[in-house]
Amino acid sequence: MPERHLRIARFVSLAASTCISLACGTNYVYSAYAPQLATRLHLTATESNLIGTFGNLGMYLSGIPSGILVDSKGPRLPLLIGAAALLIGYYPMYLAMEGGKGSTNVFALCFFSALTGVGSCCAFGGAMKAAALNFPQNRGTATALPLAAFGLSAFFFSFISSWLFPGNTSDFLLVLCLATSSIVFISFFFLRVIPVPRAYSAIPPLDIPRGNRLRRTKSGEDRHSPVMSSYVEPGTSTTSHDTIVAVANPDPMPDESSSFLTKSSSSGGSEENRVDAESNYGQAVGNSDIHIDIRGWALAYKPEFWLLFSLLGLLTGTGLMTINNIGHSVQALWAKFAPDEHPDYVQGQQSLHVSILSLCSFCGRMLSGVSSDIIHRKYGLQRLWLIVASASIFSLAQLCALTVENPNWLWLVSSLSGLGYGVLFGVYPTIISEEFGLHGLSQNWGTMTVSAVISGQIFNIFYGRVYDDHSVITPEGPRECNLGLECYRSSYWITLGAALLGLVTALGTIQRHRRRSGYASISTHSA
């Protein structure tokens, strides 16, 4: 096939990846309809939070198995699984909203919510991998589009909700059911991994200094030549799941068994290949790309893993509590500030804040991704400084949440929370790839996000308990809280502590990296 046709096919596939990602971030739109779902089914705030939490559980806990599936079978099979899971997950929730109280129990709703998370994770993983593999030399730009679409998903669907279905949550859930599954299924036919021309082929250097060929591996390591064919069929990877590798060599050609954020071969000269002494320790320093591969149980023996695992959990849980509960916060503040306000207006405000969260998350991801390269390459600083920025933004957001009583100023909480969340997730996968290697990033990132499951569960349940303790049962049956900020204020003291602890942990991790990089520099000069 002529290269021009292949290029067109790649851009068509990239467009499909972007559309798929737009359908995969709908778990973050839950707070736009959660209060109405709780009112319709007579759920407590804790039960409502449990349903949202299970959506997050499905997304994050499926990260490891879906990553393995994508790496071994390629990106297309996970798309079909994702489309089916989204359809099966959202449709019973629509039926429950239609049926009202007693039509479905909470545990069933939790299960179906988890299915939506699984579907989102599988489809998004496949979309990201296909985008990365089709543009091996422009991987950052290629994956930026699906990432941006994922971040804008909540804004897109909440806008549809407020525009087409104001006050009609049932129809909105039906749209979520049909639109998400249909977008993924239709895009399946356009998403392909296109064979890469040989012009992209990596050429092994002939004069790598002997001192740079440092390797320490466990059994089962792939010993194939780094020169690979133009296209490798899915499922051909022979890399061990418990491998530690440090080797100076060029990036191999991407295939459907490579990790979706693997860095492309660089031709940017010494500045592009410069290894930052502050953030890369225990490795040779020079112009060659240094590849490590730490995954599986080997992670458990690395103190850096537990530091980064805890740090991600603290900050993600802080963000998720606001993301999943902004609808309840809007309802509580308006119930005291303007108790006679029409319910449709309040629901519109819920959608507005979901949109603010989504847009600010998108901006944070873009800002974080670009600035991390600038501070790392131009100024020689660790990317972890952006995590310090994220923790600081989260701390400010919690202070606003503790003081804002006027619902017209609640945008401060939603915008800062979205921005902090976006900055966090815009740079964290890159930090993980630099720390533990690019080739096992899919699995390692899935392992890391387990921390979000733990902290998100704890903080969400705590918010629900606090809200329920201040709620009363109305004569009509549903619970409601008319105390404004006091309905949930206590929960934000916990997340403020978590954000500050995350800030301290990030600063401590930076200091640890500095000490280790200094030790590595001394060892290198001594050798």
Keywords:
Growth Hormone, Chain: A; 527 residues; two-stranded antiparallel ribbon; two-stranded antiparallel sheet; mainly alpha; 3 domains; 2% strand
What does this protein structure show overall?
- With 527 residues, this protein is an all-alpha fold.
- It folds into 3 domains: 1-202, MFS general substrate transporter like domains (Growth Hormone, Chain: A), CATH 1.20.1250; 208-223 and 231-250, no CATH class; 304-527, Growth Hormone, Chain: A (Up-down Bundle), CATH 1.20.1250.20.
- Helix content is 66%, strand content 2%.
- The protein contains 16 helices and 4 strands.
- It has helices at 3-22, 30-41, 45-61, 63-73, 76-99, 106-134, 139-164, 169-188, 269-273, 303-337, 343-377, 384-403, 411-436, 441-448, 450-469, 489-526, and strands at 246-248, 290-292, 472-473, 479-480.
- The chain has a two-stranded antiparallel ribbon with strand order 1-2.
- Helix 10 (303-337) runs antiparallel to helix 16.
- It is globular.
- 53% of the residues are buried.
- Mean pLDDT is 78; it is low at 199-290 and 521-527.
